[in-house]
């Protein structure tokens, strides 16, 4: 199933701005102060990298569906 949505969920923990997501998938993630998901990105092109970024997030705040 293709990824249609990626977001930052800080309901249980906060982004610590470590930059893992940006270094793994700079086409989708950016970390100025906190992680942001770039707009206008076709997530289906970067599914493997998005999943790797989610798995690498130390605070588990990156979500996708």
UniProtKB/TrEMBL annotation:
Specify the domain of life of the species encoding this protein. Bacteria
Q: Which UniProt keywords apply?
A: Electron transport, Iron, Iron-sulfur, Metal-binding, Transport
- Its Gene Ontology molecular function terms? electron transfer activity; iron ion binding; iron-sulfur cluster binding
A Pfam family for this UniProt protein?
Fer4_13
InterPro entries noted in UniProt: 3Fe4S_ferredoxin (IPR001080), 4Fe4S_Fe-S-bd (IPR017896), 4Fe4S_Fe_S_CS (IPR017900)
Q: Does the keyword ATP-binding apply?
A: no
Organism of origin: Gracilinema caldarium (strain ATCC 51460 / DSM 7334 / H1) (Treponema caldarium)
> GTP-binding as a keyword?
no
Quote the function comment for this protein: Ferredoxins are iron-sulfur proteins that transfer electrons in a wide variety of metabolic reactions.
What is the protein named?
Ferredoxin
**Stretches assigned to the 4Fe-4S ferredoxin-type domain:** 4-34
């Amino acid at each position: 199933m293709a990824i249609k949505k990626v977001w930052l969920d800080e309901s249980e923990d906060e982004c610590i701005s470590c930059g893992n997501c940006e270094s793994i998938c700079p086409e989708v993630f950016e970390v100025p102060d906190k992680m942001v998901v770039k707009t206008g990105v076709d997530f289906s092109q970067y599914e493997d990298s998005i999943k790797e970024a989610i798995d690498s997030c130390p605070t588990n705040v990156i979500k996708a569906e």
